[in-house]
Write a structure and sequence with these properties.
10 helices; 2 domains; D-amino Acid Aminotransferase, Chain A, domain 1; Dna Ligase, domain 1
Amino acid sequence: MFGLWKTWKALEARGIMGINRRNADYVLKYNKRHLYPIVDDKIITKERAIQAGIHVPEMYGIISTEKEIEKLDQIIGGRSDFVIKPAQGAGGDGILVIADRFENRYRTVSGKIISHEEIEHQISSILTGLYSLGGHRDRALIEYRVTPDQIFKSISYEGVPDIRIIVLMGYPVMAMLRLPTRQSGGKANLHQGAIGVGVDLATGVTLRGTWLNNIISKHPDTTNAVDGVQLPNWDGFMKLAAGCYELCGLGYIGVDMVLDQDKGPLILELNARPGLNIQIANDCGLTQRTHAIEAHLEKLAKDGVQESVEDRVRFAQDLFGHVPAQ
């Protein structure tokens, strides 16, 4: 027991944030409960983002009841690819990605051929709340299928890589690229076997990778290096993430974004309780960075100053970047 306590004190000294501190000092402190539906429901998030002029994957339609499943053909139309997901799902569960049509059937992104009836059954399962937070009845969202930028072709296995940036009161704190693997079934979910790769806030260059809590330098499926990759349009990602504070009003969030080869940076979803594995990927604790932002906010409040999105991004890049921003 003493050994565990000693280990934890050593981690604390490095600024590693544990789940209790995250919940007490950040989630409960900065996230007002009545605002949670804005981030817990992907449809509400998307509607708010569209109103704010923030780019998101196009929404084709919503199915809210069993009766509305009849609208599926109308919603899909002649499209050969699309995504169906639960509005209140978590961890990527319940998401169905259709990549192409095959005669009168559909081909999923993993190559599986399924029928129209199987898609309807999946939507029905979503509506019952099978994948929702708390098991409550849910809605099914049908939307544009993101095509990953070509830069990810050599360092990702199927699926869509995404970028998570943790944001405190509008200030980016830490960033991570999540890469699907064969083990994760093409999903960018670390708990299912995806890779987490730290990202330099100043430049958008990838740092090192972590896979199943092990430090790695190469993708296990493509065998290509995951570090030293320059993510395109990095300042765009940083500004998108920082602007989500005004979008949802929550002070401590994880912003999940993707880079589409045609549409550029898009916001996928927001998370009011972002995980802590991002610290492993960056070999750096969150606490020292969050304390620095809180101290900065106190000084601004005394001076009666409010910073813009651009100011907040610049502050984070200057203070937390491994390499000074150009």
